[in-house]
């Protein structure tokens, strides 16, 4: 029990200490007191403690009370002294304020002045920071106005990164900073606008650049500048190879004398390209710029490569086209070397390859329309200079050289057409009479124009007569002129002597065998051409064929090719050079001879009921034979085969005509006397050898049909005819039953006209025999048809 009381007392003492020691939070202590259900006893203990403290306080107050009273008395004394001191301080303050009033005014003025001075210093400092910004901005505006875009871009970078950060606290700097992208875009647009102007100008200026570049190349090669549209001042233009005249005409528009000594690159300012490239490179858009530039230049290339529609008409059209192309690629070559990678070799080769095919096609197409050999020669020289110029800039021009070889073939064709006109003019003006000279000078003049040697002719006295007409030396000289013209185009084409020689020989051969022969064939078809003129033309062609040997020697001399190996391969075909023309001439001789013979044959005046023959040839036959003798005499200088063919044709025509006289439907009756007269005329027409070289009996073969028919009726050898009919060795093999029937019918009709023939027994027997022969002939005819 005592232990519990002590424990409780200890707890209460602990609670009291907590209350005394803690001034702020007593909640836990009070909760502990109430939780123990002894709060009443604690209250008693608390009252006891309070009373104990009250006693202590009372005891202390009693101890210090006298000292407190003493302190109050001292304090009262000090208060009076303080009031006195306060009065003195107030008085001193008033006196001090009165004396310091002017100092305060001056001080305020000084403070204000210091403030203004500080503001001025701050303003100067801030203006010093802003002034470079404003100066740089003004500089930027000036550079843009002057179109100095690349320096403007550098100035803009300096403004953005160096000066604007120093004035970042000012509003205008924010405005400037916001405008910087717009300024950059303005610079890009302005530089691009300059580039577009440059591209437009360079498109118009390219022909001028190309002309200057080609002129420089021509000067370097010591070539004729007339090819590029300007006459060289050191030497005149070369003469026309066809006329011998200087046919160069300077361009109507003035050329660029002031820039004559400048290079092509000096004629144009490339700074817009470089400037725009630098700007786009700095702005990180180089690839965009390269793509745009190349795309635009490709478009311009396509425009440049479109030839004028009438380019083939004059050399000026070719010049303009070629100059534009050269100018374009000279510009691109310059950009390649100075453009810092804007144009690379791969791109340039791609554009050139694209352009090369178009150039070749355009030149091939338009040159094919050209029919002027002089113009084609100028075109060739222009293309040669074009090739050399572009090759000097590193472009491949092999296809253009191949094109020149194609144009050369067309040029040769044009030359042939031109010489066709020359030949036709010569043929139209020619009289086709042998050349006759009356002096040695005239004789030598003919030999100078045509290589001819005849010992027999040289020994004759004047006047002398050549076997050929003036046509031969004229044609020979024109062929030589043609060879010179062919050679003119082959110059500078890098062809070997053998190639040039072979080309000229082939062209010359075509000229004679095709062009000249064609002119002759055209001439032969003219009705006005007489038979003797045709004969003389054939004689002339023979001498021209013989002269081809000298033409080959002439070609070898001017080309420098060796003579060996050409003659042997060609001599065998020379006789065939005018084969077509000679065949036409032979046909014309035969046709004209037949027509002339028809004129005599139309004079036929047979009395078909003639009782007895006249005993001599008919008059028209006598005239015909006289005509043939004179014609065959003129065949002396003809090639033997031509004369022989004409003779054969004449004999065949006469034989058929006489046979047709007898078999004609217009002739209803024929007497034996008329047949005997025809037999007599036929004997006169059967020649032996009117022209040399004919085999014996050849011409008689053409009279075989007529002769066998006449022999059969003259001898009345019908038993032999019927016996040998169908056999190869038959005497009357060429007599057909139908032909014999026609003639017998006409004989029978003639006998009917004889009134007293029926009274004679011999006539009656002959009539029976005639009927019998007719019957047998009709049977043979039916058998032959089956």
UniProtKB/TrEMBL annotation:
The keyword Transport applies. One of its GO terms (biological process) is intracellular protein transport. Residues 399-746 form the Exocyst complex subunit EXOC6/Sec15 C-terminal domain. Residues 229-249 are annotated as: Disordered. This is Exocyst complex component. One of its GO terms (cellular component) is membrane. Keywords: Coiled coil, Exocytosis, Transport. Component of the exocyst complex involved in the docking of exocytic vesicles with fusion sites on the plasma membrane. Coiled coil: none annotated. Residues 45-214 form the Exocyst complex component EXOC6/Sec15 N-terminal domain. Belongs to the SEC15 family.
């Amino acid at each position: 029990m005592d232990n519990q009381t002590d424990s409780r007392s200890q707890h209460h003492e602990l609670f009291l200490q907590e209350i005394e020691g803690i001034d702020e939070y007593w909640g836990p202590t009070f909760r502990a007191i109430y939780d123990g259900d002894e709060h009443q006893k604690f209250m008693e203990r608390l009252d006891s403690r309070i009373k104990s403290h009250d006693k202590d306080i009372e005891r202390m107050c009693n101890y210090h009370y006298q000292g407190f009273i003493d302190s109050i008395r001292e304090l009262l004394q000090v208060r009076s002294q303080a009031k006195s001191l306060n009065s003195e301080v107030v008085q001193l303050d008033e006196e001090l304020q009165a004396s310091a009033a002017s100092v305060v005014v001056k001080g305020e003025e000084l403070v204000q002045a210091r403030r203004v001075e500080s503001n001025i210093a701050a303003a100067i400092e801030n203006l010093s920071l802003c002034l470079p910004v404003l100066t740089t901005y003004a500089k930027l505006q000036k550079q843009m106005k002057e179109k100095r875009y690349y320096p403007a871009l550098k100035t803009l970078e300096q403004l953005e990164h160096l000066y604007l950060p120093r004035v970042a606290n000012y509003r205008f700097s924010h405005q400037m900073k916001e405008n910087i992208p717009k300024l950059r875009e303005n610079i890009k647009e302005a530089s691009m606008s300059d580039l577009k102007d440059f591209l437009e100008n360079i498109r118009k200026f390219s022909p001028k650049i190309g002309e200057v570049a080609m002129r420089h190349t021509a000067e370097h090669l010591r070539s004729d500048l007339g090819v590029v549209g300007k006459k060289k001042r050191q030497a005149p233009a070369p003469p026309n190879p066809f006329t011998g005249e200087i046919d160069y005409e300077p361009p109507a528009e003035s050329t660029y004398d002031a820039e004559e000594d400048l290079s092509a690159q000096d004629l144009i300012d490339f700074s817009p390209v470089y400037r725009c490239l630098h700007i786009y490179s700095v702005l990180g858009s180089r690839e965009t710029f390269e793509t745009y530039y190349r795309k635009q230049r490709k478009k311009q290339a396509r425009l440049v490569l479109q030839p004028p529609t009438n380019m083939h008409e004059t050399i000026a059209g070719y010049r303009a086209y070629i100059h534009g192309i050269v100018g374009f690629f000279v510009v691109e070559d310059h950009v390649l070397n100075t453009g810092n990678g804007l144009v690379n070799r791969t791109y340039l080769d791609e554009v050139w390859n694209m352009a090369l095919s178009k150039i070749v096609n355009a030149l091939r197409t338009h040159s094919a329309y050209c029919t002027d050999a002089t113009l084609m020669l100028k075109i060739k020289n222009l293309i040669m200079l074009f090739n050399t110029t572009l090759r000097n800039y590193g472009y491949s021009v092999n296809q253009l050289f191949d094109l020149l070889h194609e144009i050369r073939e067309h040029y040769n064709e044009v030359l042939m057409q031109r010489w066709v006109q020359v030949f036709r003019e010569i043929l139209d003006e020619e009289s086709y009479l042998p050349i006759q000279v009356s002096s040695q000078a005239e004789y030598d003049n003919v030999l100078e124009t045509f290589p001819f040697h005849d010992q027999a002719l040289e020994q004759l006295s004047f006047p002398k007569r050549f076997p050929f007409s003036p046509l031969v030396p004229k044609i020979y000289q024109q062929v030589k002129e043609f060879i010179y013209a062919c050679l003119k185009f082959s110059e500078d084409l890098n062809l070997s002597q053998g190639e040039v020689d072979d080309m000229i020989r082939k062209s010359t051969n075509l000229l004679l065998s095709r062009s000249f022969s064609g002119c002759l064939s055209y001439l032969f078809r003219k009705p006005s051409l007489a038979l003797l003129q045709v004969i003389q033309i054939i004689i002339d062609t023979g001498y021209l064929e013989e002269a081809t040997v000298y033409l080959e020697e002439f070609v070898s001399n001017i080309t420098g090719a060796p003579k060996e190996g050409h003659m042997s391969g060609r001599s065998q075909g020379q006789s065939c050079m005018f084969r077509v023309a000679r065949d036409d001439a032979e046909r014309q001789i035969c046709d004209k001879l037949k027509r002339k013979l028809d004129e005599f044959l139309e004079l036929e005046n047979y009395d078909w009921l003639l009782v007895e023959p006249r005993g001599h040839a008919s008059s028209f036959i006598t005239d015909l034979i006289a005509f043939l003798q004179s014609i065959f005499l003129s065949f002396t200088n003809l090639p033997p085969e031509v004369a022989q063919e004409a003779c054969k044709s004449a004999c065949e025509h006469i034989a058929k005509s006489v046979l047709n006289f007898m078999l004609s439907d217009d002739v209803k009756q024929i007497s034996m006397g008329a047949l005997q007269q025809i037999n007599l005329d036929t004997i006169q027409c059967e020649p032996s050898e009117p022209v040399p070289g004919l085999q014996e009996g050849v011409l008689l073969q053409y009279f075989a049909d007529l002769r066998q028919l006449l022999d059969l009726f003259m001898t009345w050898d019908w038993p032999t005819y019927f016996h040998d009919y169908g056999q190869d060795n038959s005497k009357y093999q060429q007599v057909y039953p139908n032909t014999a029937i026609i003639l017998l019918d006409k004989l029978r009709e003639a006998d009917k006209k004889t009134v007293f023939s029926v009274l004679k027994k011999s006539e009656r027997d002959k009539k029976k025999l005639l009927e019998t022969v007719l019957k047998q002939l009709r049977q043979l005819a039916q058998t032959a048809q089956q």
